[in-house]
Amino acid sequence: MPNTLTFDVAGSEPATITIERAIIAGWTGRNADAVNHHIAELQAIGVPPPSTVPLFYRVAASLITTDGEMETVDATGSGEAEPLVIDDGERLYLGLGSDHTDRQLETHSVALSKQICAKPVAPALWVFDEVVSHLDQIAVRSFIRDDESQAWTPYQEGTLASIRPLVELIDASPATSSGRLQPGTAMMCGTFAVLSGGVRPARFFRMEMTDPVLGRTIKHCYETKTLPVIS
User: What's the pTM value of the predicted model, to 2 decimals?
Assistant: First the structure.
């Protein structure tokens, strides 16, 4: 089902984009040791290793959301800060999203665990052509906390230099067309290892992406609310 969202675009008018397909690119680390480290993190909580790397998962386009709240069936899910590319048919954009994943379900099926959760994204984008020459310098960080009164705990940190070149991921994706994503495609491009303490859930997830060359930052925060269980 198509999903229409409006984004602020740095240096341009806001863009209203109808997302018709959503893809999660997984296991995209440029360094094999980093990929194996993330695989080991997930194996530690019972998640089977991937059949190949990178791996592309299709999820419903309707899961992409700019809302600041998301509802889940249980409290086992956790966020993953990732670069996001969106093609509206005229322009390719770079944004920031969280591949929020149900970790309990992930031990049964990675594909299902990704489909079951909303995918929060920041309501702001950069024009891809403006950043393509220095993508490796762009930094992504995430933070977690379980209560509004708590200080934020650093959770992830890295630069796009540790992720496979985004142009290569676009070319390898199942929705590529002549070196571009098919119009209406949104694709998350992989994440970073957890800084310490392993993969874990948190009520609040905050993420930011910083461009040190152009001096700008995209930020987004969301809260996970657990639905009551009806017996």
Answer: 0.93
